[in-house]
Design a protein that fits this description.
6-stranded parallel beta sheet; single chain; Rossmann fold; 2 domains; 12 strands; alpha/beta
Length: about 375
């Protein structure tokens, strides 16, 4: 089989959406190619791994001279590996996820992004991300879109009725007879969580409760305290780069003001699946912020696989994951009344909502499998493998 090399620092045992995507991509590609992998697996400190990366790649290419293509799994990997553009004539394909192309630091945009455009080809995870790439000089004829996949096996885990008791005993929340909204994710501004709490929750009926899942660390650590002394724009750029919580204080404040909103924190994966199934609706109330975009919308697909209909802001890469009228509805970002009206409309007819939810689950399973994603990458790779 044709040999390829995949390089990534987002990989198990690290946990996260990009880590899962990277693993499933490489695993799937191994059915079509002899796939060599250089991945960060916590075998050393991440800085040490990056410092040793060049020598690892050179050794890999010397040991396997028949490698016909190199894949870099995100923009950061592309920046670290710019030296490869002069070192080898092997085609190099880079994946761009979103923030790794719009990151607003001037040096990155003006000095590094132009060099990223010089790779053989690029794959964006959404049309929105592709548009951001093309605006920055990526050639349209070598800039492709392959949407991320979702773990379809999530759908096969049966619903556990004991989740009602666990919610009451573990979290002190009685969900019996309630309509339930759920969101997941870190409290960053683009997610719109504090906006939803402040502007939408007061418009909702009192039998509707909102459950939030994810980290909510409101006490700054030493690094964050140090960063507060930085000039404001630099502070924001570093937060974006490190993926820090930029909205935790506002979320915590709004939670205190809402009697029907609860934050569960980080929960076990098994409980996450059950809470997603418990919910009537999954909400993604994202807002637009310059320099920070939602490249895709994997959490929406995960909710859909659990049979939960999705309401999401119709902005950025979300519209590549949530297809309006198929596995959810896209709503105007920042329009609280439109959100409240759609929530009340859907919750007023549970039979129709159940039908929509099952339709959405089937649509997501058909269009967003890992196999479909892998095949998309293979189609791109085969264009450049000689």
């Amino acid at each position: 089989m044709t040999e390829i090399l995949c390089i990534t620092y987002k990989y198990p045992p690290n946990i996260g959406g990009m880590e899962k995507q990277s693993y499933e991509l490489i695993h799937g590609l191994s059915y079509y190619y002899t796939t060599h992998v250089i991945a960060y697996k916590q075998e050393s400190h991440i800085v040490a791994w990056f410092l040793s990366l060049r020598s690892k790649v050179i050794k890999m290419l010397k040991d396997h001279p028949n490698i016909k293509l190199i894949h870099l799994n995100d923009g950061s990997m592309g920046v670290i590996s710019l030296w490869l553009q002069k070192y080898t004539k092997i085609p190099i394909v880079i994946t761009i996820h979103g923030l790794d192309i719009v990151y607003p630091l001037g040096f990155f945009q003006h000095k590094l992004v132009p060099r990223l455009t010089k790779y053989t080809a690029s794959i964006s995870v959404s049309e929105s991300t592709k548009n951001e790439c093309v605006k920055r000089g990526f050639p349209e004829d070598s800039t492709f879109v392959v949407r991320n996949g979702v773990d379809c096996s999530m759908a096969s885990v049966p619903f556990d009725q004991t989740i009602y008791e666990r919610m009451k005993n573990k979290y002190g929340i009685d969900v019996t007879g309630k309509h339930i909204l759920v969101s997941t994710g870190r409290p960053v501004k683009r997610k719109g969580f504090s906006w939803f709490l402040k502007n939408v929750m007061p418009l909702l009926n009192k039998d509707i409760i909102f459950l939030m899942i994810g980290p909510l660390k409101n006490d700054p650590n030493a690094l964050e305290k140090t960063m507060r002394g930085l000039e404001n724009s630099l502070h924001q750029n570093v937060q974006l780069m490190l993926g820090m919580s930029t909205d935790a204080t506002n979320v915590a404040h709004e939670l205190k003001l809402q009697e029907n909103a609860y934050h569960l924190g980080k929960i076990k994966y098994d409980d996450l699946l059950q809470v997603l199934s418990l919910a009537d609706l999954f909400v993604m109330p994202n807002l637009h912020f310059d320099g920070d975009i939602e490249g895709f919308g994997l959490v929406a697909l995960e909710a859909s696989m659990r049979g939960t209909y999705v309401l999401a802001s119709g902005i950025e890469g979300i519209s590549d994951a949530v297809i309006d009228g198929e596995n959810g509805y896209l709503l105007p970002s920042g329009n609280a009344q439109a959100w409240a009206d759609k929530i009340h409309e859907l919750l007023s007819d549970k039979e129709l909502l159940n039908t929509l939810s099952e339709k959405g689950r089937k649509y997501t399973m058909e269009h967003y499998s890992w196999a479909k994603m892998v095949n998309g990458y293979k189609e791109v790779f085969d264009k450049y493998i000689m």
